[in-house]
Each structure stands twice: as C-alpha cells, then as structure tokens.
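Supplementary Note 3. Input sequence used for the single-chain structure prediction.
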Amino acid sequence: MNLALSEEQEILKKAARDFFEEKCPKSFVKQMEQDEKGYSPELWEEMATLGWTGLLFPEKYGGSGMNFLDLAVLLEEMGRACLPAPFSPTVVLGGLPILDAGSEKQKERYLPEVAKGKAIFTLALIEPELGYEPRAIATEATPNGDAYVINGIKLFVPYANVADYLLCVARTSKQEEGITIFVVDAKSPGIKCTVLETMAHDKLCEVVFDNVRVPKENILGQLDQGWPEVQKTVERSDAAKCCELIGNFQWVLEDTIAYAKDRKQFDRSIGSFQVIQHYCADIAIYVEGARLAAYQAAWMVSEGLPCAKEIAVAKSWISTVSPSIFDLAHQIHGAIGVTLEHDLHFYTTRAKVIELSYGASNYYREVVASETSLA
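The predicted structure, written as discrete structure tokens, is reproduced below.
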C-alpha cells in the first residue's frame, strides 16, 4: 500500500485548499450556521462546476471516474475548511448506493443529477431505537397497488431540510433482515422535516413519514434484501467521515503549534516549555495515527477490498483520540480557545459530531472483535 499522493491527487489537494481558503472563511461558516438552508447554493454550484460532486461516478453518468482515495483527499480539505455543504450526504450516502444497487434506469435518471450538482440526496436510516442492526428498523413500507406506503420516524438525517431525494431504509418483511431501500421524493405528501438543535449547528433533521406513497419502481436493489447495501453505505460513510476529520485534526495541530510559538509567558514563548512541547507532540502522534488508519481504510474501499475491520479500526481510533486532541489543544490555547471569537470551537464541535456518528468507539471495538473472530 503506497499512501503517497499521486501527482493528480496533489493537484486536487492544492486546488481544493486554495478554493476553500478563498470561498469558505470562518465568517462564511458562521453565517451558514445561522442560515435556514445551512449551505450556499452558489458555492454548491461552483463545486459542481469543478467536477467534485461527480468525482466518483463514471463518465457516462457525467462524472470523472476517479476513486475513493481521490475523494479522501478532497474530503480532508473539506474537513480542514469546516465546509458547510451536503456533499457527503449527496455523494456518499446517496449517489454511491445508486451506483451500486440501482437499475440502469435509476442510474441514468439520478446519477447525472448528482454529478452536475442538480440534486441533493441523503440517507434516512437512524430511528428512535438508535440501533445499527436490522432489528432497529421499525419504519414500515407496506404494498398498496403499484406503490408502497411508508410510515415511521427517522432521526439525524443530514440536510434533509434541503434534500431533493431521501434514500429511506424501511422494513418490508417481518423477517429481521427484511429491509428495503426506497428512493423517495423529498417533496412527497406526508413528509415532515424538522431541523434539530445540535452543538455544531449542522443540519441534522427529524423526518416523519406519514402514509408516504412511493412507486415500486423506486425500490433500490432487491425487495427485502437492502441491508447489505445499508451496511456498505454506512462503512463508506465512516471512511469518508474519518478522512474529513483528518483535515479537522491537521488544522488544529498547525494552529496549536503556531499559537504555542507566538504566545508569550514569562518573557518566552510557551512553546519553549517542555510540557507544551510534549502536548504538541502528543497531538501530532494522535493525528498521524489517525491519518494512517483513515487512509488505509479509504485505499481499501478504493480497491474494492473487504475492509469492515479496517474501517472500524479507523473509526474507533479516531473517536478515541479526538477528545484527547481537543483537550490538549484547548489547554495550550487557554482561555482564548474556549471563546467563540477563536476558530477552534468550529473544529471541536464538528469533531464531536463525527466522533459519535453511526456509533461511538465502543461499537466499533465490537465490530473489530467480530471481524477478528473474537465475538
């Protein structure tokens, strides 16, 4: 495994860094926190014009035909910038399942819209039961003529407030794994979306399905056989989130070192004190370990290799070290680090959201144990 970036990836990384430094300053991030949509349609259109929303999709669907490792490079820069946009929900949670499980008709209909930035997708999976197994899915889809009628509640659905389509995971059989994925028009009668209050001010929503009618042709994949695709989608989302968080961590490391060099105490920079040096070294060690784990997982996804364990290792390690990274960063910054005037809070809150998404570190330890035949 060679994790050195290719020339093409280096160009992508630099282009993304330059773009976000210009287009996504922290004043813009703060503005989007208070915005009803939570993202800028104009910025989204610019990203689509650059080909980023179509990066993973074949050229025949309007994409660039690149791979998941290329996406990891882009996601790291998005994490570094705290980008407020429905990118991962649309591309990873929406587009990739359609590419994997969709019929050719579905691919031809939806993927060009994703690639061109014309449609926003998201995944409606988590329910009040808060489990990550098929038995936690209580939302029901019952057959009715040439359609299915969906009833249930979904929580923490990212950017559902602006989505054009929802991939709704619903129960279609009494068998535990009798789960089906439906492509649902987000404007369908009977859908009610409420934006939840979160510490990161990101747009996570409660979505209520009340007798929502969905044509049978909108089934993604096979009836009653959707759970393997759900698992695959969650794993790829975890890999994507880990890469995004690497960019978050890298900014924190660089900013903390710069602050330690600049901040004076007792007529010398605080970075000259051994304890501060050790704190910075600890952060660097945590970040480097997280980077290696995240990129190994992204590389394996890109190569089409089985990687449930590697993704779980990355998610568990990153969720474990994230609090330590931010505890140390805030200690070094002191009082200024806990004010809203300093940019550190943007990274702290977003890291906590990613840390807990789709399960905390203990859940992923169980996955690792299972994948190594220990459970």
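The chain has eleven helices and ten strands. The mean pLDDT is 95.
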